[in-house]
Amino acid sequence: MALYAELHRHLGGSVVPRILWGYFQRYQLSKAQDFPEYSEFEEYYTRERSSLDEYLELHTLVESVQTPQALPYFIYRLIRGAYIFENLAYLELRYTPYYRTDEALSPSERISQMQMIVEIVGQSSHVKEYPIVTSQILCIHSRLPYEVNKAIVDLASQMREYVCAIDIAGGDAHIAERLDEFIGLYRYARSLGLKTTGHLFETTNGCYPELLPYLMRIGHGIQIPLKYPELLKEVAQLNQCLEVCPTTYLKTGTLKNISDLKTVFDRCFDAGVDIAICTDNAGLHNVRLPFEYENLLTHNVIDFQQLEACQDAAFRHAFAWPYGKRPASMLTGLLQKPQDEKQLLPF
């Protein structure tokens, strides 16, 4: 029975190394020649990087193969793994649609092609044998021009059948030089009734309190409790949820040890700020959501009661979860009902 919600997973970083290596072996022998042995590819793909920018460069490797023709191949395997191995009931996939369009086209043609990309991702995410509630978060990008980013916001508003929110991606340090522009885009998105999250306060280079009033959730946000705990009161008042992705901070060098996250969780719980535990890039990390849970528990970052609170928060803050309760609560009711009915039988 699927029990968990994943609120922060990138489409580009969701492809596990074995699947990506197998795709190269089947369909792109030129790339396969660089890594004839799987073990070599896995080590390269999942190793720690020295910075967030270096880490994000890996997304370009996957984006280059996530073409309209290949997206169904990757998404089917993503959904299958999420259902079978991670017990996911709910999954939000985020990505920048412009980077899945044909690079040979003109910018205006690529903008037009984004609608087809959203449709392909949306349709491919609905797999009958693996019933997971899915939705998309479209990412504007800190390195894309304003015209493209505005088109992404407009597309999100027009395709609410598939899209539940917008985000900003591309490396948080690159937001600074265009901060007013991105504030304007978020203000515009909220005026359209769009839900919002954003990659902020992940590193010490990405702290922009000016954007906080426009967010409903915060992508990462760990520097708030670590460096700016005075902001936690505002975050709590805005009912914002932090999307904390533990393995990411080790892979990017943002934190030296997972135990450093104990301060994040303790201060957030004390301030009444919700946290959803997420994977971010499950493929790049070669980990799954239950591992993130277990790792936090075994390193005494959180206890079981706090874990359950985070799992509840994930469903409570999910942008497109259609039910009032998390699946575990509904399952408990179903299991108790036959017992109650049995007690009413006259024999």
UniProtKB/TrEMBL annotation:
Pfam families assigned to the protein according to its UniProt record, in alphabetical order: A_deaminase
Entry EC number(s): 3.5.4.4
Class of the enzyme per the UniProt entry, highest EC level: hydrolase
Protein name: adenosine deaminase
Database matches in InterPro entries: A_deaminase_dom (IPR001365), Ado/ade_deaminase (IPR006330), Metal_Hydrolase (IPR032466)
Taxonomic source organism: Aphanothece hegewaldii CCALA 016
Domain of life assignment: Bacteria
Molecular functions per Gene Ontology: adenosine deaminase activity; metal ion binding
Cofactor: Zn(2+)
Domain Adenosine deaminase, residue spans: 5-320
Family: Belongs to the metallo-dependent hydrolases superfamily. Adenosine and AMP deaminases family.
Assigned keywords, A-Z: Hydrolase, Metal-binding, Zinc
